[in-house]
Each structure stands twice: as structure tokens, then as C-alpha cells.
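Service request form, structural biology core

Requester: graduate student, group of Dr. S.
Request type: structure prediction, single chain
Budget code: on file
Notes: please return the result as C-alpha cells.

Sequence provided:
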Amino acid sequence: MPGNELIGKEEEVQVADVMKRGVLFRYGFEKRRENIFKTFEFEEKFAQYIGVKYALAVSSGSAAVRVALAALNIGPGDEVITSAFTFIATIEAIVETGAIPVLAEADNSLNLEPKDFERKITDKTKVVIPVHMFGVPAKMDEIMAIARKHNISVIEDTAEACGGSYKDKKLGTIGDIGAFSFDYVKTITTGEGGMVITNEENLYQKSIYYHDHGHDHRPNTSRGKESRKHLGFNYRMGELQAAIGLAQLAKLDYIIEQQRIHKTYLKKEISSVKGIKFREIPDPHGDIGAFLFLYLPNREKKEKFEKALNEAGIETGIFAYWHYFANVEPSAYQGKEVHLEMNGQTENLVNRAVLFPIAIHQSEEELKKIVEGIKKTSSVI
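Core staff response, request fulfilled:
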């Protein structure tokens, strides 16, 4: 996910515009900053791009999920269902609320399996967090139908799929709240940062309160005189990050276009290779093309295949440890309750998968090298 590949003059200009006024904080100092607020501008333009009423910039993608949970009043005793295959931050955010993460299996798309999601629902279930893993949309029609049937709120973790869509709806806009990440290895980057989006004014207001210590943000009132409307913490984004975000957002469509071109080429050229299968894509039109996953017949053949590729100088991605909860040391969650009742489906998929990151600046020669390497090393399958 290569927004960092395109950091250049546009980002420098935006950052310089902040620095010449010297106001790095998102609120206040109106005269000194000449009423220029980069964070507000970034939020407005991101909301327009995604197609929602409200967007709130926060300090990270992890913070975005945490703020979304707070907006839904999630706390101790509540259960939140998410996929066992997700970056660990999704689960950390649930644990931070005092709620109980309930992990469901992933399907062949490596996203939340709707049937196992429904199996895991109890009378304590308050939220489901489908995660659009590695740029590919989850099966949102089925997930939304189940959630609405059981009166469960939906947070879309769109950290790894910014700009993607599902049946012509931008990812993050289908559920009640969407959460995005802009860290250094995401589709667009602000170094660190994230965004919370929603069409519900009540959820937006609660998000604003929570991300800034509960401040009520009254117009024409200094921060010291504002009252506290809600429990909160500090998850604010600063002006420098927002300035970079404005420059990066303007490049998002180009990034996705280039990724899709490269991924389409790779899939076409290796489609006839025996012994490999492609990851399921619930809506190919909505895939941002950030990664190519291949499934091998079993773990042993996957390991031989990947080793041969690496020895041939073909880079493969590292994804299993930080993205599959069962691989994380139990001591990290000592004293915390996590429901992990798995049937082996997700583990089987993870153990057979090989990941190829897609870069914007990959040359035709580099892409051909990957194709030739896959075809050559397929003899070990």
C-alpha cells in the first residue's frame, strides 16, 4: 500500500503552508493561523471523496476504531465480533474499551465469514467489525443483513482498503461507522493518522467529544472555557499530518489505478499455473489492487514455494503473525478475556497463502520477473 512512494513536492508545499504560520494544533489560534485549518479541510475533502456527511481526523487507524467504539457506547460486558484474521489493532481497540473480542473465522476472501459471524452472536453482542483485509471488500450484503436482523451496529475497519468499494458503495460508508488508517504503509499516508466517518450526526458528535477529552467545541469560546460533554481522551490529528493528507488524497485515484493495472497483469500472466488458486474477491470492481494472494495446496508446498521465490529474489509479504490472532503470544492478553473458538478454517487459509505486495513504481521488467519466478518455482508445488 504505497502512498509513501509518492511523497514529493505537493506534500512539501502543504507542510510549508502550515509552517509559515506556525500553528500545528487543529483548534484555536484563529488570527495567527489566518483562519486556515488544514485538519478541517482534510476532513471535508475526505468526506466528499468517500461520500458521507461527516469525517473526523484522528491520530491513527487504531484510534479510529477506538473512537468508533466509544461513539457506540461500547464498554465492559459487551461483546464485539470481528475476524480472527485482522491486524491486531482491531482487537486491541476492543480490549481497550473493556469489551470482549469474539473472533470469527475468515472465508476464502480472507475477510469475515458471514455464517460464522452469525454463529458467534449472543445476547451480549453489540457490534460487529468486518475488516476489508489487504484491499479487498468483505461480503457486506450478508454481513449487513445479519447485523440488522440481530440489531447489531457495524463498524467497517477500512484501514487497508481506503478508496475501495463494494457494489458501487465506498468502503466505510455501508455500516454505521467507517474507520481508516493513514500510517506510513497505507494506501495514502500522513505518517501517522486515521479517519472516522459516518452519516449519523449523533455518532459524529460523540466521536468529536471522545477524541478530544470531551470538549464541546463551542464557537467563539476559548478551549479553557469550554465544558466537558463526554468521557474522552486525546486522539486528535495535527495540522502537519492533515496537510500531508490533503496532498495524498489528491493522489488516491491514481494510486488505486496503478495498483489495479499491475495486479491485473500478474493474475492474467500466472492464471494457467497449476497448483495455485487466487483469493476470492467478493467484488472485483471494488478491490484496490494493493496485494496479490495465492493459495497453495497445503502448508508444506506453500513453504517450499515461498522459499524458492525468495531465493530467486522475488519479494513476498510477511502477514501471518501480526494479522492472525492465534499466532500472537497469549501473554500479551494476560488477564483479558478473548473468545477464540475456531474450527481451523482461518488457520488453514493463512498457512497456505503467499502474499505479493503491489507497488506503484513497479516496472514492466520487475513485474515480468515476478511472473517468471512464479512459473519457474511452481515446479515445487
